[in-house]
């Protein structure tokens, strides 16, 4: 496992990878020690994250290794289909995974997403467009959505 850190406008981000895939991307209180010999995928993640925060990147092109149930993986794949600068509701994602009554389960899968921003769980809102839970804090979710809308 390798780690790298990125200082974003909304806090420190830790990125974890193996030799070929991103495993986690999460907000952290403090930056730790990055590995000197980071694999190429980790270097690309840092570059793409920087481009995202500068408003130059709207989609990520990185290998991801998702760890979760088949349902969670299906939800996370659907999250990646929500376009930059747009939102979808938990119900929209539930319908997309083939179970329109699974809004709460979609919320649970969203909560278990370990690859923030790249798997854009921040783009998922309540049925009336209200801001709902976000592991990084609602204020970060609002910032990310505003950032994307201002860079469309």
Largest sheet: 3 strands, antiparallel
Shape: globular
Unreliable stretches, pLDDT < 50, 5 or more residues? none
Which strand order does the major sheet show? 1-2-3
Total separate domains: 2
- What percent of residues are in strands? 15-25%
CATH domain fold name of the largest domain: Arc Repressor Mutant, subunit A
Order of helices and strands: EEEHHEHHEH
Distance between the termini: 35 Å
Give the C-alpha Rg: 15 Å
Mean pLDDT over the full residue set? 94
What is the CATH class name of the largest domain? Answer: Mainly Alpha
Helix proportion range: 25-40%
Q: Helices and strands: which structural class?
A: alpha+beta
Beta strand count: 5
CATH architecture of the largest domain: Orthogonal Bundle
Helical segment count: 5
């Amino acid at each position: 496992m390798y780690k790298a850190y990125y200082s974003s406008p909304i806090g420190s981000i830790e990125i974890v990878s193996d030799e070929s895939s991103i495993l986690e991307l999460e907000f952290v209180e403090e930056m730790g020690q990055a590995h000197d010999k980071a694999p190429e995928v980790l270097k690309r993640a840092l570059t793409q994250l920087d481009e995202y925060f500068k408003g130059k990147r709207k989609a990520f092109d990185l290998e991801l290794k998702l760890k979760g149930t088949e349902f969670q993986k299906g939800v996370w794949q659907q999250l990646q289909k929500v376009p930059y600068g747009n939102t979808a509701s938990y119900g929209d994602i539930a319908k997309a995974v083939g179970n329109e009554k699974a809004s709460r389960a979609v919320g649970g899968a969203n909560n278990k997403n370990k690859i923030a921003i790249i798997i854009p769980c921040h783009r998922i809102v309540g049925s009336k467009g209200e801001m709902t839970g976000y592991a990084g804090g609602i204020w970060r979710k609002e910032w990310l959505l505003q950032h994307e809308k201002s860079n469309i």
